[in-house]
Amino acid sequence: MPRKKNIKIYIYNFLLYNVKKRKAVKKMKIGFIGCGNMANAIINGIIGAKVFEKNDIFASDIEQNKLTQFCDDAEIHAADNSAIATKCDIILLAVKPQKFPEVLPKIANELNDNQLIISIAAGKKIAFIESCIGSHKIIRIMPNLNATIQQSVSALCANSNCTQEDIAITKKIFESIGVVFELEEERFSAFSAVACCSPAFSFMYIDALAKAGIACGLEEGCAYAAAAASVIGSAEMLKQSTDTPQELITKVCSPGGTTIEGVKVLKKKGLSETIAAAVNASYEKDKTL
Q: How confident is the model at residue 109 (pLDDT cuts 50, 70, 90)?
């Protein structure tokens, strides 16, 4: 029963996100060091939700042509790392984790204690970031691919230098692209394996489901649309239900019916064990980044 209660609490919080009023944060400048796909999604999210004014958003990237095109389209400022480090109140680190040892030391002396540093890099702990730039207000957050459609699931943790206002501002930024959970940093690798890697797992499931439907006679377009819609509907059902996933499985499996026959095969083939192995592999990899 305690587990069921926890599931209900998380679902309540998830639903609560959808009715929150979004208000712009106080006048601040935010800069993105790295302007790839995830940074693009976050920038589009905060512009759409009016979290920041366009004139207060800056971005840098090594691919100058792409940066210029994106900034022109989004009507924000293209800059370099140094300008962002000296001008912005919030600095969001969106370069690949492998680039941190190269990029961060170069801006370390240009930062000040009042700035908030936010990292979206997988595997790079707050302690590592501190080793590159020194003691600052640092928040680590992990969004997922679905940020591109404002449906991300993100985890957040902060170091002891951060205030509640810093955390609130970061939540406001990332709630513009989805839902945010506060977690202890030691749980980030597990969260990443479940929430950040799972879109790929879900796409694989939908693809396999559709292909099986095609093999049974469905037209391709219908099979993919039906498989995707069914997964979306099932997730929404779980969000709105007070039942656990296992209880919902039991409800849909009528004795002697079609669903239970398929469920028997999934259990026999080890679906749960396969998923657990995939999550564990992603979890172990995240810890080595």
A: very high
CA distances from 12 to 7, 15, 182, 271 (A): 9, 5, 15, 28
Q: Rounded to whole angstroms, how far apart are CA atoms 227 and 170?
A: 35
- Do residue 160 and residue 226 come from a single domain? no
How far is residue 72's CA from residue 49's CA, in Å, rounded to a whole number? 19
Task: Give long-range contacts, CB 8 A cutoff, 24+ apart: 198-202.
Answer: 198/144, 198/279, 199/144, 199/145, 199/146, 200/145, 201/275, 201/278, 202/231
In this prediction the pTM is 0.84
Query: Could you please report the per-residue DSSP string of 57-121?
Result: EEEE-S-HHHHHHHHHHHT-EE--HHHHHHH-SEEEE-S-GGGHHHHHHHHGGG--TT-EEEE--
Strand order across the 90-93 sheet: 77-78, 57-60, 30-33, 90-93, 116-119, 137-142, 152-158, 178-182
Q: What angle do CA 283, 286, 289 make, to 5 degrees?
A: 160
State whether 173 and 34 are in the same domain: yes
- Give tens-digit pLDDT for 225-281: 999 999 999 999 999 999 999 999 999 999 999 999 999 999 999 999 999 999 999
- In this structure, the answer to whether residues 101 and 235 fall within a common structural domain is no
CATH number, domain with residue 275: 1.10.3730.10
Residue 219 and residue 127 share a domain: no
